[in-house]
Amino acid sequence: MSTPTDTITPSIPVIIAYGDSLVEGWGLPDREALPAQLEAALLRAGKTVRVLNFGAAGETAPEGLERLPKVLEAKPVAVILEFGANDCYQGIPVEETEAALAAMATGLIEAGVKVLVAGWRTEEDLFSRYADDPDLVGMLPIAPPLYNAEYVRRFNQLHPELAQRLNLPLIPHILDPIGEDARYYQADAVHPNAAGSIILADSLVPWLLPMLEGA
User: If DSSP codes are grouped into helix, strand and coil, which group holds residue 121?
Assistant: First the structure.
């Protein structure tokens, strides 16, 4: 996680990518990770901002909540809130993930920060389809005990319901812009490569520009 808050220029608005390895840029140098690509994409769109990387590989929403004070300390005007993948991989109870996401979103809103919810959509065959791929065996854990059809149903309602309840913009699944196209993923078929990060960054620009009006 790279958070160079000491180099922030007060007159330049700050956006924070707050989440797990999907926003951190796991497996990529900082310059190719999503936050850096997003900063460049916004510049191309005519908006000078700093995009700070508050992604942490392997982190669940309850763990991410512990870092909320540091996020607020950076005084962002907008935050991309992206947690959930590790929660479902670990079978974290949906109630715990929901409570942590709600606490993060509410804390940001109360501080006057605009929030874009970037969700994660899971599937019943999430684990079996990787186990069946000889190139990926062992790269993801065995399905946890709580991971079943009901867990999947409830988990997939989590981000949409949170966004609706708090009246926040929602990207239902952070990886939707690259879909399942292997050209845009690293070897684990989960984390975007540099080309995938560029596509994700470009897809975020239309969501963020309205949130930066007046900033």
Answer: coil
